[in-house]
Amino acid sequence: MAYSKYNRLVDYRDRVTVYDSNEPTKSVYSIDLMSFPYMTNFESNNTETGMICWAKSWAVYTEECYDKVASKWILINEFDKNFTNEMIDKIRNVTDPAANAVVGLIFETNSVMTSESLYSRPPIMSEATPGDCNTLKPYAYNKLEDPTDQSYKTKYQHFFVANCGVLDAIVPTYFVYTAMWLVTAGVAAAYLYFIIPSESRLSLQKSLLLLPALKALEVFLQGIWLNYCPWVGMDNSAY
Q1: Residue 22 CA: distances (Å) to CA of 19, 28, 32, 182
Q2: Computed over its alpha carbons, how large is the radius of gyration of the chain?
Q3: Are 174 and 219 in contact (CB under 8 A)?
């Protein structure tokens, strides 16, 4: 079953697990990171393996990590507008072997990132604070004292859990309540306009007809919103 730390309608996160080079099954460090939501495969669970490379720029990656001891790389990038955009553009080049070797990208940033585009490469992308990235720094290939003596294999996972099925029995209830409020508004309007003489109708009575009508609209919109679960692809990605 896919990972879910909390009982939420939608739960998504990434996990980096570092393994001892001498004991490949022994985990030496693990951390959960915030997923970068602008990925085309955001709704799919995914697992990649490789080695960590601390790369402020594409040049650092190609010079210090690529074509060394690993065939797959997970890059940690200290966010910089120019260097980061260049790195993203380079990774999207499917004809470049260095780009194809990148299976993950972690942005070091203190603020939530936004984008006007969706990305299919690399397969997993995350956002992390400088503090979180510093905990991974000791396991980066190009930050090791002796990379030839020790290296850390890393598993990089993206989890997406959508429990929207629990809403299947709830959403129709909202539409039933919508109909009830509309019936209430209709009955009140019929009573006001067909039973009460026109000379006895008050402006306040007419205004009160808006209450059940607006309540019907509110409940209807709530039902529509819940029916959109898991809300991926909407303009607001804050969930």
Answers
A1: 9, 11, 24, 69
A2: 27
A3: yes
d(CA 152, CA 74): 12
Range 139-153 burial, b when 16+ CB lie within 10 A, else e: bbbbebeebeeebbb
Cβ distance 24 to 7 under 8 Å? Answer: no
pLDDT digits (tens, 9 = 90+) for 65-87: 998 877 899 999 998 889 999 99
Joined together, the tokens standing for residue 65 give 């990590």
8 Å CB contact between 43 and 159: no
**Phi and psi at residue 57, in whole multiples of 5°?**
-145, 170
Q: Judging by DSSP bridges, how do beta strands 102-108 and 73-78 pair with one another? A: parallel
Half-sphere exposure of 200 (CA within 13 A, CB side): 7
Nearest CA-CA partner of 157 in 2, 26, 5: 2
Per-residue pLDDT tens digits for 158-185: 999 888 888 888 999 999 999 999 999 9
Beta bridge mates, 12: 160
| Res 202: pLDDT | 80
Helix (H, G, I), strand (E, B) or coil at 12: strand
Q: Which two tokens stand for residue 1?
A: 């079953």
Count CB neighbours of 204 within 10 A: 7
Q: How many residues are given for the chain? A: 239
CA triplet 69, 75, 78: central angle to 5 degrees? 135
